[in-house]
Amino acid sequence: MKRIYLDHAATTPIHPDVKEAMHQVMDESFGNPSSIHHFGRESRKRLDEARMTMANSINGHYESIIFTSGGTEANNLAIFGTAYANQDQGNHIITTQIEHHAVLHPCEQLEKEGFDVTYLPVDENGLVDIMDVKHALRKDTILVTIMFVNNEIGMKQPIQMIGNLLRSKGIPFHTDAVQAYGVEEIDVEELKIDLLTASSHKIYGPKGIGFLYKRDGLNLIQRQYGGEQERTFRSGTENTLAIQGFKKAVEVLQQERDERIQHYERLSEQLIQALNNRQIDYAINGDLSKECHVPNILNLSFEGMDVEIFLTNLDLSGVAVSSGSACTAGSIDPSHVLKAMYGEDSPRLRNSVRFSFGMDNTEEEMEQVADRIENIMNRLAMNN
Questions:
Q1: What is the CB neighbour count within 10 angstroms for residue 246?
Q2: Which one of 53, 177, 185, 202 has the lowest number of neighbouring Cβ atoms within 10 Å?
Q3: Could you tell me which residue ranges the Aminotransferase class V domain spans (predicted)?
Q4: What is the pLDDT of residues 213-222, one digit of tens each?
């Protein structure tokens, strides 16, 4: 049985070129980049080059990149760091109901500390209304944090409109771009983004490394104390091995982005067509139009299915998918994203599956996935 991996929104395998780059670092650059001797300087050079690569990838400045252990730490630094730095000006924060838990949980913690958080609703396609953002703004609003692309349904928020609105008001704007970084061309200057989160392991790089972009001049309080690394915003010896892998993953991404996007579009279209050909009953969660949706994530509702039983049977048949964020794996709670879209009584909360595509997937695999879904649904229907 051929196993088919369709959970790339959770994590991606490491690209061969990334492995090679990391092996080179292990052999040649083991020095501490804070050391002044030859070995330290060699590591510092690699670190500086990686920082420049990250900055150029989003049209940011070299000193705007803060390396972190991943998206969660970057989100925490952005949210807590901005809130604490500006609490003398107010205590109001705006976010949405469909954020990743690496944003929602920090916001909930800040509420316990006396901050006031507004959780904006979304429509049935998972999109926030720019007028809702505007109407939620207050004189004491000190941060707005809204994700670029949702990790469960692949919907793109109106980031540029939000950025323009907030820049005109002088309010810091953070976006979790972990799912967007691999499929969207991002220009932080054009989009008026003040803080942006990215992660390596979503773009065929190693786990345990990410970055936070911080616009020059933005007030941010450090969350980790120790040495002077990352301009004191993130103390601790830099993970030069993982950073070099991240750098190579970004370089490969920049060369292949258009090709990858076209490939993901074909895979999504092929899977939908294969399901249609087999007359499988399903519904699409979200809006698949290109202006609203990224092509590598497809969230489908299968009527009459129980998602836990369905996922188990898919895994046994060799198909790896998920019901949402990998950070909630094992949870019996329904998706908070789908709840915000359809209401807490909607059956879609209990029968939806996320398919997320990768470079190595093929159109033939989409046919095989549709076959296996058909067999599972027929078997479960007979048992009922």
A1: 29
A2: 185
A3: 4-369
A4: 999 999 999 8
Beta-ladder partners of 378: none
Active site residue 107: no
Structure tokens at 182: 């691999």
Q: How far apart are CA 324 and CA 335, in angstroms?
A: 7
Is residue 271 predicted with pLDDT exceeding 70?
yes
Q: What is the pLDDT of residues 154-206, one digit of tens each?
A: 999 999 999 999 999 999 999 999 999 999 999 999 999 999 999 999 999 99
How far CA 194 is from CA of 2, 5, 75, 167, 191, in Å, comes to 45, 35, 13, 9, 9
Backbone angles phi, psi at 346, to 5 degrees: -70, 135
Catalytic position from the list 284, 327, 359, 380: 327
Stretch 302-323: mean pLDDT, rounded?
A: 94
How many angstroms separate the Cα of 31 from the Cα of each of 47, 120, 238, 241?
11, 47, 11, 11
Give the chain's domains with CATH numbers.
Answer: 4-12+257-383 (3.90.1150.10), 16-251 (3.40.640.10)
The pTM (predicted TM-score) of the whole model is 0.95
